[in-house]
């Protein structure tokens, strides 16, 4: 017995095709997604070797015309990488958003081409996943000068050497210190007329070195005056504190009314130093040593300026003063204390 097959209605067949197309996602445009990168301006535009620069970076999803990303109801995960130089890192607060910041701290001068890569993993509501990447090149200008400052440290023989500036430089009033700007590794010097010198300490001029005299006494122990070397958009600064060193001598037997301009033979004299402005530790100045510049006797004192002096057992002029042991004022003496031409035994007045 033959059973006739019931024909499928045309409208039913069309509905099946539409359902098939929706399930397969053939017209979603999902697979055609691409990524584009947007790079901001580096800040600062030109950096010196080792200086930090920051650059905002962003990316976006590009879809075919008429495709609505919000209707895909999926997720997006972003990641970034940077290559082309040493000292690159990317701060990326959220993997669900493309916004990030490139931070570059490049040691070698030049114009390295930094390659930025943005990666997107996009998943739609049906669980389908695609991975897309895009790259962009960013040139970063790393200037070659200046990189650091040094100062000239004298020695007792009249020579000396340059040493790195690592903190405030203490300069005796009326004395000078020589500063030198140092180019980064790989550079032997500066271009003509560079760097330019300026600052509250009175530095003016150009060239690799400059002498700065401590003219104005600092008001406090932390009142600094600047010395700045500048080339292009990059500058480095040292801070100086201008002070005076005051040696003090007081007889150990300092009875009321005694004459302080005459010492007795074999008398013990207490030694100390103070600064103007007050409060600067003597060790921060490089330490001092007491010196007998005329006459005999014996000094026992430390680098902090405290000690004793024993007057010799015979008459004669006594001159005793201090000398800076280390630092930029190394070897510089302060006028010695001169006491009585004919020291006598200490005694009560009258």
Overview of the molecule:
It is a single chain. The chain has 350 residues and is mainly beta. Helices cover 4% and strands 45% of the residues. It is built from one helix and 24 strands. The strands form six sheets. Strands 12, 14, 15, 17, 18, 19, 21 and 22 form an eight-stranded mixed sheet that branches. Strand 17 and strand 18 (234-251) form a beta hairpin. The model is unreliable at 1-27 and 341-350 (pLDDT under 50).
Q: What is Rg?
A: 39 Å
Structure class: mainly beta
Largest sheet: 8 strands, mixed
Instruction: Please state roughly what percent of the residues sit in beta strands, choosing from under 5%, 5-15%, 15-25%, 25-35%, 35-45% or over 45%.
Output: 35-45%
Total DSSP helices: 1
Return residue spans where pLDDT drops below 50 for at least 5 consecutive residues. Answer: 1-27, 341-350
* H/E topology pattern: HEEEEEEEEEEEEEEEEEEEEEEEE
| Overall residue-averaged pLDDT value | 80
Strand element count: 24
The amount of helix comes to: under 10%
Distance between the termini: 159 Å
Question: What is the general shape?
Answer: elongated
């Amino acid at each position: 017995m033959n059973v006739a097959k019931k024909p499928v209605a045309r409208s039913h067949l069309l509905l099946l095709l539409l359902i098939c197309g929706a399930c397969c996602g053939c017209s979603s445009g999902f697979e055609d997604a691409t990524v584009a990168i947007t790079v901001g301006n580096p800040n600062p535009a030109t950096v010196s070797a080792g200086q930090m620069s920051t650059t905002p970076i962003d990316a976006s999803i590009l879809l075919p015309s008429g495709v609505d990303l919000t209707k895909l109801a999926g997720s997006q995960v972003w990641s970034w990488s940077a290559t082309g130089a040493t000292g690159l890192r990317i701060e990326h607060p959220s993997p669900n958003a493309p916004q990030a910041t490139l931070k570059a701290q490049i040691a070698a001068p030049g114009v390295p081409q930094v390659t930025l890569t943005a990666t997107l993993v996009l998943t739609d509501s049906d669980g389908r996943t695609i991975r897309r990447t895009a790259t962009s090149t960013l040139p970063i200008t790393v200037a070659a000068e200046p990189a650091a400052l040094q100062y000239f440290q004298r020695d007792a023989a009249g020579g000396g050497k340059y040493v790195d500036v690592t903190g405030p430089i203490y300069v005796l009033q009326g004395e000078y210190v020589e500063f030198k700007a140092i180019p980064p590794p790989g550079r032997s010097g500066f271009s003509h007329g560079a760097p330019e010198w300026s600052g509250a300490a009175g530095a003016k001029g150009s060239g690799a070195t400059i002498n700065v005299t401590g003219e104005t006494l600092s008001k406090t122990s932390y009142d600094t005056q600047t010395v700045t070397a500048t080339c292009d958009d990059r500058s480095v600064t040292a801070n100086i504190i201008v002070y005076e060193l005051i040696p003090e001598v007081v007889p150990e037997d300092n009875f009321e009314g005694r004459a302080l301009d005459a010492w007795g033979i074999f008398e013990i004299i207490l030694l100390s130093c103070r600064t103007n402005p007050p409060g600067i530790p003597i060790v921060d100045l490089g330490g001092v040593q007491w010196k007998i510049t005329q006459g005999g006797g014996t000094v026992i004192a430390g680098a902090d300026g405290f000690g004793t002096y024993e007057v010799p057992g015979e008459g004669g002029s006594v001159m005793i003063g201090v000398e800076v042991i280390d630092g930029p004022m190394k070897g510089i003496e302060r006028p010695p204390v001169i006491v009585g031409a004919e020291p006598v035994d200490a005694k009560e007045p009258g």
